[in-house]
Amino acid sequence: MLRQDSNDDTEDVSLFDADEEVSTRSKKSKIRHPVASFFHLFFRVSAIVVYLLCELISSSFIACMVSIILLLSCDFWAVKNVTGRLMVGLRWWNQVDDDGKSHWVFEARKASAQGKKVSSEAESRIFWLGLVTCPIIWVIFAFSALFSFKVKWLAVVTMGVVLQGANLYGYIKCKVGRRTNLTSMATSYLGRQFLRQTVVKDDQAES
Question: What is the DSSP string of 60-84?
């Protein structure tokens, strides 16, 4: 605390509150997982760059196609299993039960007991920007290949749309599902409170 002088107009100011505010802002803007953030963009951006420059890099269509599909596959695995969990606390997967039925599971990490966010704002922006922008680019590539009659590239761009679109759909379901669960919990709680009040009023009226 600053000591107040009798002949001065200064007032007591808590230095700890200022330090806490600065630290909170730095945590929000800080990238906690730089390696995950790098590879979240590296594979998908590299696949787009190779697709655009494939004719300059190599004259072999097979080599370009294999390189792009390999980058897309690495991106799909990394985003689905690593970067989504670390950067935004979301995860999705498919599992088969004992009856042989396939089920899609969408999971969101719970907030800490202190109410702190599971990810920083900087990482969240990087994650969603890369997740949304790149599938849109592959959709543009698909229409371009279709209208320019580049049939041999349709399989490649379709693979890009499917793999990156699947991750986009999965994480949107995770995000929306978490809000839906909170909404349903709030609705059921209000419903129980309303029913309890109605029962109490009926009991009072009968008595």
Answer: -HHHHHHHHHHHHHHHHHHIIIIIH
DSSP reduced 3-state for 2: coil
How many CB atoms neighbour CB 43 within 10 A?
22
Tokens of 7: 């002949």
pLDDT value at 187 more than 90: no
How far apart CA 77 and CA 182 sit, in angstroms, is 29
Residue 154 has which token pair? 């349709």
pLDDT tens figures, 6-62: 444 434 434 334 344 444 444 556 888 899 999 999 999 999 999 999 888 888 899
How far, in Å, CA of 168 to CA of 146, rounded?
23
- Whether the Cβ atoms of residue 92 and residue 107 lie closer than 8 Å to each other: yes
In a domain, 156, yes or no: yes
- Among 25, 3, 21, residue whose Cα is nearest residue 120: 25
Interacting residues of 42 by C-beta distance below 8 A, sequence separation 6+: none
pTM tops 0.70, yes or no: no
Report yes or no on 3 lying in a domain: no
Q: Which two tokens stand for residue 108?
A: 């969101």
Domain containing 110: what range?
34-197
The count of domains in the chain is 1
